[in-house]
Amino acid sequence: MTERRGFTLIEMLVVLVILCALAAQAAPSLHRFVVRTKRTEAQAALLQLMQQQERFYSQHNRYIAFSSGASDAQAKLFKWWSGGSAARSAYEIEGKACDGELIEQCVQLIAMPGTAKVDQVFKDEDCGQLILTSNGQRLATGAAPRCWP
């Protein structure tokens, strides 16, 4: 009798099935982790932009509206995306007057997920848009109860 070394085809298939089952369970967790990470990145960008708005307010006694299509030189100083570059960001950010108020009195920063100017594929189904106001409100348009830490 000769001794054979190695694995049989059945053993290899069993290992492959187990690996596929583990990968299928890990994929949704990985997706949730990526969404939470990009959401946290957007929240940090909103907080940084609000600090920039407060500095602008202390110098000019008013807030300033900004967006990706801003033409005003001062408005262009505000970063309208959440990540390192617009193409790699998950959220587009705009600053506008709070609902029912003038821009001179209150500004709200809105982070919109997956627009045409950032990663269109990204979706944040739980929280939707993230909103930070100069009045200290932290809001979200989605159904999740806690979108802000």
Poorly predicted tracts of residues = none
Coarse morphology: elongated
Please outline the major beta sheet: 4 strands, antiparallel
Summed over residues and divided by their number, the pLDDT gives a mean of 93
What fraction of the residues are assigned to beta strands by DSSP? 5-15%
- Element order: H for helix, E for strand: HEEEE
Based on CA atoms alone, the radius of gyration comes out at 23 Å
What's the tally of helices? 1
CATH class: Alpha Beta
How many beta-strand segments? 4
Helical coverage, percent range: 25-40%
Q: How does the helix and strand content classify structurally? A: alpha+beta
What is the number of independent domains? 1
What is the CATH architecture term?
2-Layer Sandwich
Task: Report the end-to-end length measured between terminal Cα atoms.
Answer: 68 Å
* CATH topology type: Glycoprotein, Type 4 Pilin
Task: Please provide a written account of the structure.
With 149 residues, the chain is an alpha+beta fold. The protein has a single domain (10-140), classed as 2-Layer Sandwich (Glycoprotein, Type 4 Pilin). Helices cover 35% and strands 14% of the residues. It has one helix at 9-60; strands spanning 91-97, 107-113, 130-133, 138-140. It starts with 8 loop residues before the first helix and ends in a 9-residue tail after the last strand.
